[in-house]
């Protein structure tokens, strides 16, 4: 009995000493991590230094990847994800490939080759790689709405990578948690599945995948990350290069042909919400059209204004007794004048306009020139989007806004050319995208790069001056 007590006492003392040693090692690691994060030279090597610092500060600077605080599963799955970033349209160069190595983690796990400073640096680099992966999977690398500096500051944004990483580390399946931050749209999922086939399943299997195809898919996955499309909600999606509009509901899609801006007057990429639409709208002529088109035509043809139901206004009101001499005077100081086109079937907006806030002053609208929808290539407008069968879109918006009872009034207004605003109780997200390839029925469908934007995005994403898409 006495011998047993001695053995137990020894084991307890040994365990206590081991525990104290581990606590001491963890404290030394935390101190080193904090010190390295204060080093501006190291911060300059990180993609998201502020986010990484917040992550460690929240966890009292404890090690994440070089300890067993989160078990073995997360750290090795993290390395596997970095190995597979090409399958998500991302570049391995963004994830510290010279620092994050399998053999380095093995040495940390199985040997004493690395000192505390090396362990701390590896831990920090791995955290930055995971924060980067989360941000790039969610926002994209070059999101025009959320710049990388703004994302790193983390102020008031819809997604926070370091907080998400802290939660994912506590989940049983680290990889699934990381990938779950990607866009929730079928268009994105289809492109990502195709990329996984090309860079995972087929790559190296006697199946040559053109680099041009890989990069085309990657830049369009990037664009879909910017769009923040969620198939669980209703939305209106205009894809500029394919000249179509999709009114998406969780259980169905309705397709409409559209006319978009010409290369000289491109339709912008944006996100907003359709708040209301107007029947028989007046059209206030944009200043650029007023100066470059309306005035020259009116000067050349005195009847042009009357024939097109156009009225010119100044700061006081309607300008009367317009002749060629007055028009020439107006042209010399046009900033003090503007024009409106009266409502009617010949109005350039047609009988309907759908309004949503944006800095570009663009909108969706009907058009009197229906024949243009028969063209295959429809980049013809000054930037706004003309919608075929706009009345049906208005009707569907009312019905899905629990305002089906107003459809009859809508139809009467269109018949009688009566102006009225129909306000949606629940504004509908509208997404204007520029996607030059999508996956349809399992196959890649390419659309013409009408604004030649693929080149600049590919150069920015891949850091090249010779894009393969233009070779």
Structure description:
This protein is an alpha+beta fold. Among the domains are: 27-182, no CATH class; 287-341, no CATH class. The protein is built from 17 helices and 14 strands. It has helices at 2-37, 40-43, 49-58, 71-83, 102-110, 116-138, 148-153, 161-168, 174-179, 186-201, 211-227, 287-300, 304-307, 324-332, 390-399, 407-416, 454-462, and strands at residues 235-239, 244-249, 252-261, 270-279, 283-284, 310-313, 338-341, 352-356, 364-365, 379-381, 385-387, 420-433, 437-440, 443-446. It has an eight-stranded mixed beta barrel with strand order 1-2-3-11-9-8-4-12. α6 crosses α8 (161-168) and α15 (390-399) runs antiparallel to α16. Residues 13-19 have low confidence and may be disordered.
List the helices and strands and how they pair.
Layout lengths: L1 H36 L2 H4 L5 H10 L12 H13 L18 H9 L5 H23 L9 H6 L7 H8 L5 H6 L6 H16 L9 H17 L7 E5 L4 E6 L2 E10 L8 E10 L3 E2 L2 H14 L3 H4 L2 E4 L10 H9 L5 E4 L10 E5 L7 E2 L13 E3 L3 E3 L2 H10 L7 H10 L3 E14 L3 E4 L2 E4 L7 H9 L9
Parallel strand pairs: 1-12, 3-10, 9-11
Antiparallel strand pairs: 1-2, 2-3, 3-11, 4-8, 4-12, 5-7, 6-7, 8-9, 13-14
Helix pairs in contact: 1-6, 3-6, 3-8, 6-8, 10-11, 12-14, 15-16
């Amino acid at each position: 009995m006495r011998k047993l007590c001695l053995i137990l006492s020894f084991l307890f003392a040994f365990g206590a000493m081991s525990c104290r040693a581990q606590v001491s090692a963890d404290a030394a690691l935390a101190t080193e991590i904090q010190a390295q994060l204060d080093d501006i030279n190291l911060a300059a090597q990180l993609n998201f230094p502020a986010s990484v610092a917040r992550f460690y500060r929240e966890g009292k600077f404890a090690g994440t990847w070089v300890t067993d605080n989160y078990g073995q599963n997360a750290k090795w799955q993290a390395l596997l994800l970095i190995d597979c970033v090409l399958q998500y349209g991302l570049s391995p160069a963004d994830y510290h490939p010279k620092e994050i190595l399998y053999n380095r983690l093995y040495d940390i796990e199985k040997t004493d080759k690395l000192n505390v400073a090396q362990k701390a640096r590896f831990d920090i680099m791995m955290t930055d790689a995971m924060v980067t992966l989360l941000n790039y999977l969610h926002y994209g690398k070059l999101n025009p709405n959320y710049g990388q500096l703004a994302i790193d500051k983390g102020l008031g944004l819809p997604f926070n990578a370091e907080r998400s990483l802290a939660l994912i580390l506590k989940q049983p399946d680290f990889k699934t948690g990381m990938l779950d931050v990607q866009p929730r749209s079928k268009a994105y999922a289809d492109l990502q599945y195709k990329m996984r086939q090309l860079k995972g399943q087929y790559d190296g299997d006697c199946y040559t995948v053109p680099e041009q195809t890989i990069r085309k898919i990657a830049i369009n996955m990037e664009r879909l990350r910017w769009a923040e499309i969620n198939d669980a909600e209703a939305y209106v999606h205009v894809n500029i290069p394919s000249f179509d509009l999709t009114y998406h509901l969780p259980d169905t899609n309705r397709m409409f042909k559209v006319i978009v801006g010409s290369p000289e007057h491109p339709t912008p990429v944006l996100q907003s919400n359709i708040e209301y639409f107007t029947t028989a709208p007046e059209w206030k002529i944009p200043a650029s059209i007023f100066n470059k088109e309306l005035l020259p035509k009116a000067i050349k043809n005195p009847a042009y204004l009357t024939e097109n139901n156009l009225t010119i206004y100044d700061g006081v009101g309607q300008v009367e007794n317009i002749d060629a001499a007055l028009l020439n005077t107006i042209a010399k100081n046009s900033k003090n004048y503007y024009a409106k086109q009266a409502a009617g079937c010949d109005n350039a907006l047609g009988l309907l306009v759908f309004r949503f806030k944006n800095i570009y002053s663009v909108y969706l609208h009907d058009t009197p020139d229906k024949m243009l929808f028969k063209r295959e290539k429809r980049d013809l407008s000054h930037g706004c989007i003309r919608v075929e069968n706009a009345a049906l879109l208005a009707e569907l918006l009312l019905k899905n806004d629990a305002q089906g009872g107003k459809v009859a009034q809508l139809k009467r207004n269109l018949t009688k050319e009566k102006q009225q605003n129909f306000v949606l109780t629940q504004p509908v997200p509208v997404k204007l995208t520029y996607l030059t390839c999508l996956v349809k029925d399992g196959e890649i469908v390419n659309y013409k790069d009408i604004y030649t934007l693929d080149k600049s995005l590919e150069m920015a994403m891949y850091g090249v001056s010779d894009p393969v898409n233009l070779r």
